[in-house]
Design a protein that fits this description.
single chain, five-stranded antiparallel β-sheet, 25% helix
Protein backbone atom coordinates (compact mmCIF):
# COMPACT_ATOMS: atom_id res chain seq x y z
CA UNK A 1 0.00 0.00 0.00
CA UNK A 2 1.50 3.41 -0.95
CA UNK A 3 2.24 5.88 1.88
CA UNK A 4 -0.46 8.44 2.61
CA UNK A 5 0.61 11.96 1.61
CA UNK A 6 -0.34 14.82 3.96
CA UNK A 7 -2.66 17.41 2.43
CA UNK A 8 -1.00 20.48 0.96
CA UNK A 9 -1.51 23.68 2.88
CA UNK A 10 -2.01 25.93 -0.17
CA UNK A 11 -2.99 25.19 -3.75
CA UNK A 12 -0.52 26.98 -5.98
CA UNK A 13 0.10 27.34 -9.62
CA UNK A 14 3.12 28.56 -11.52
CA UNK A 15 2.22 31.83 -13.19
CA UNK A 16 4.28 32.47 -16.27
CA UNK A 17 4.32 36.14 -17.09
CA UNK A 18 5.27 38.03 -20.19
CA UNK A 19 8.44 39.08 -18.38
CA UNK A 20 9.42 35.43 -18.09
CA UNK A 21 9.19 35.53 -14.30
CA UNK A 22 7.43 32.56 -12.79
CA UNK A 23 5.83 32.86 -9.40
CA UNK A 24 3.95 30.42 -7.24
CA UNK A 25 0.59 32.10 -6.80
CA UNK A 26 -2.69 30.96 -5.25
CA UNK A 27 -5.00 29.45 -7.85
CA UNK A 28 -8.65 30.45 -7.92
CA UNK A 29 -11.10 27.59 -7.48
CA UNK A 30 -12.06 26.08 -10.79
CA UNK A 31 -8.86 27.20 -12.51
CA UNK A 32 -7.11 24.20 -14.02
CA UNK A 33 -3.63 23.38 -12.80
CA UNK A 34 -0.86 24.14 -15.28
CA UNK A 35 1.02 21.41 -17.08
CA UNK A 36 4.34 21.19 -15.29
CA UNK A 37 6.88 19.43 -17.41
CA UNK A 38 10.63 19.49 -17.54
CA UNK A 39 12.04 21.44 -20.48
CA UNK A 40 12.72 19.24 -23.52
CA UNK A 41 16.20 17.81 -23.40
CA UNK A 42 16.75 18.77 -19.77
CA UNK A 43 17.65 16.18 -17.18
CA UNK A 44 14.87 16.02 -14.61
CA UNK A 45 16.03 16.87 -11.09
CA UNK A 46 16.13 14.09 -8.55
CA UNK A 47 13.21 13.80 -6.16
CA UNK A 48 15.53 13.99 -3.15
CA UNK A 49 17.16 17.26 -4.29
CA UNK A 50 13.69 18.70 -4.99
CA UNK A 51 12.45 17.62 -1.54
CA UNK A 52 15.47 19.19 0.15
CA UNK A 53 15.04 22.36 -1.88
CA UNK A 54 11.30 22.55 -1.10
CA UNK A 55 11.99 22.26 2.64
CA UNK A 56 14.76 24.87 2.55
CA UNK A 57 12.76 27.20 0.30
CA UNK A 58 9.73 27.02 2.59
CA UNK A 59 11.86 27.98 5.63
CA UNK A 60 13.63 30.77 3.69
CA UNK A 61 10.41 32.25 2.30
CA UNK A 62 8.80 32.21 5.74
CA UNK A 63 11.89 33.97 7.16
CA UNK A 64 11.58 36.62 4.42
CA UNK A 65 7.86 36.97 5.18
CA UNK A 66 8.59 37.51 8.88
CA UNK A 67 11.27 40.10 8.10
CA UNK A 68 8.98 41.94 5.66
CA UNK A 69 5.94 41.79 7.97
CA UNK A 70 3.94 39.52 5.66
CA UNK A 71 1.51 37.09 7.35
CA UNK A 72 2.66 33.52 6.77
CA UNK A 73 -0.82 32.29 5.81
CA UNK A 74 -0.66 33.91 2.35
CA UNK A 75 2.86 32.79 1.51
CA UNK A 76 3.28 30.09 -1.12
CA UNK A 77 6.24 28.43 -2.75
CA UNK A 78 6.76 25.45 -4.99
CA UNK A 79 9.46 23.43 -6.62
CA UNK A 80 8.63 21.98 -10.03
CA UNK A 81 10.72 22.56 -13.14
CA UNK A 82 11.46 25.93 -11.48
CA UNK A 83 11.56 26.94 -7.82
CA UNK A 84 9.35 29.96 -7.10
CA UNK A 85 7.70 31.86 -4.27
CA UNK A 86 4.82 34.33 -3.90
CA UNK A 87 4.18 36.67 -0.97
CA UNK A 88 1.16 38.99 -1.02
CA UNK A 89 2.40 42.23 0.51
CA UNK A 90 -0.96 43.46 1.77
CA UNK A 91 -0.02 47.03 1.00
CA UNK A 92 -0.24 49.38 -1.93
CA UNK A 93 2.06 51.84 -3.57
CA UNK A 94 1.09 55.52 -3.61
CA UNK A 95 1.74 55.48 -7.36
CA UNK A 96 -0.74 52.58 -7.85
CA UNK A 97 -3.34 52.85 -5.07
CA UNK A 98 -5.83 50.56 -6.87
CA UNK A 99 -3.50 47.53 -6.95
CA UNK A 100 -2.18 45.25 -4.25
CA UNK A 101 1.49 44.42 -4.39
CA UNK A 102 3.21 41.05 -4.45
CA UNK A 103 6.76 39.95 -3.77
CA UNK A 104 7.89 37.10 -5.99
CA UNK A 105 11.06 35.01 -6.10
CA UNK A 106 12.48 32.70 -8.74
CA UNK A 107 15.60 30.57 -8.53
CA UNK A 108 16.90 32.15 -11.77
CA UNK A 109 15.89 35.80 -11.23
CA UNK A 110 15.73 36.46 -7.50
CA UNK A 111 13.29 38.88 -5.85
CA UNK A 112 10.92 41.40 -7.47
CA UNK A 113 7.96 43.51 -6.38
CA UNK A 114 5.08 43.52 -8.85
CA UNK A 115 1.55 44.88 -9.01
CA UNK A 116 -1.18 42.29 -8.53
CA UNK A 117 -2.90 42.32 -11.92
CA UNK A 118 -5.93 40.40 -13.17
CA UNK A 119 -5.19 36.96 -14.62
CA UNK A 120 -4.12 37.30 -18.24
CA UNK A 121 -2.92 40.90 -17.86
CA UNK A 122 0.81 41.49 -18.22
CA UNK A 123 2.62 42.04 -14.91
CA UNK A 124 3.94 45.44 -13.92
CA UNK A 125 7.26 45.30 -12.10
CA UNK A 126 7.96 48.08 -9.59
CA UNK A 127 11.44 46.90 -8.66
CA UNK A 128 13.84 44.00 -8.87
CA UNK A 129 16.55 43.22 -6.35
CA UNK A 130 18.86 41.79 -8.99
CA UNK A 131 22.18 40.13 -8.34
CA UNK A 132 22.21 36.97 -6.28
CA UNK A 133 18.86 35.18 -5.96
CA UNK A 134 19.69 34.20 -2.37
CA UNK A 135 20.00 37.19 -0.04
CA UNK A 136 19.39 37.68 3.66
CA UNK A 137 15.73 38.08 4.65
CA UNK A 138 16.47 41.49 6.22
CA UNK A 139 17.94 42.69 2.90
CA UNK A 140 14.80 41.55 1.07
CA UNK A 141 12.66 43.42 3.64
CA UNK A 142 14.69 46.62 3.05
CA UNK A 143 14.27 46.18 -0.71
CA UNK A 144 10.48 45.85 -0.28
CA UNK A 145 10.27 48.98 1.89
CA UNK A 146 12.39 51.00 -0.55
CA UNK A 147 10.43 49.77 -3.57
CA UNK A 148 7.04 50.49 -2.00
CA UNK A 149 8.21 54.00 -1.04
CA UNK A 150 9.86 54.73 -4.42
CA UNK A 151 8.54 52.34 -7.08
CA UNK A 152 9.98 52.22 -10.58
CA UNK A 153 6.97 51.17 -12.71
CA UNK A 154 7.99 49.22 -15.77
CA UNK A 155 11.47 48.48 -14.45
CA UNK A 156 13.25 45.73 -16.30
CA UNK A 157 13.56 42.44 -14.52
CA UNK A 158 16.94 40.74 -14.59
CA UNK A 159 17.41 38.12 -17.28
CA UNK A 160 16.95 34.50 -16.32
CA UNK A 161 20.26 33.04 -15.30
CA UNK A 162 21.25 29.42 -15.60
CA UNK A 163 19.39 27.02 -13.36
CA UNK A 164 21.39 26.66 -10.16
CA UNK A 165 22.51 23.36 -8.70
CA UNK A 166 19.55 22.53 -6.44
CA UNK A 167 21.60 20.81 -3.75
CA UNK A 168 23.78 23.92 -3.38
CA UNK A 169 20.77 26.22 -3.59
CA UNK A 170 19.06 24.32 -0.76
CA UNK A 171 22.23 24.55 1.36
CA UNK A 172 22.50 28.32 0.75
CA UNK A 173 18.83 28.84 1.65
CA UNK A 174 19.24 26.80 4.86
CA UNK A 175 22.20 29.00 5.88
CA UNK A 176 19.91 32.05 5.95
CA UNK A 177 17.19 30.54 8.12
CA UNK A 178 16.89 29.28 11.68
CA UNK A 179 16.87 25.75 10.21
CA UNK A 180 20.46 26.26 9.10
CA UNK A 181 21.57 27.78 12.43
CA UNK A 182 20.48 24.92 14.72
Amino acid sequence: MPPVQPPKQHVTTAVSTSTGLNAARPRHRGTPAPHSATQPGATPPSASSDDALATALRAYVHAVAAAAGVPADGVTCEVTDTATAYLPLGRRSASHPDHDLMLVWGERRGWAVLLETPPGDPPVALGALGGDAVVAPAEVARFVSTTVASPRPGCRLPGAGARPDRTRLAARLRCLTSEGRR
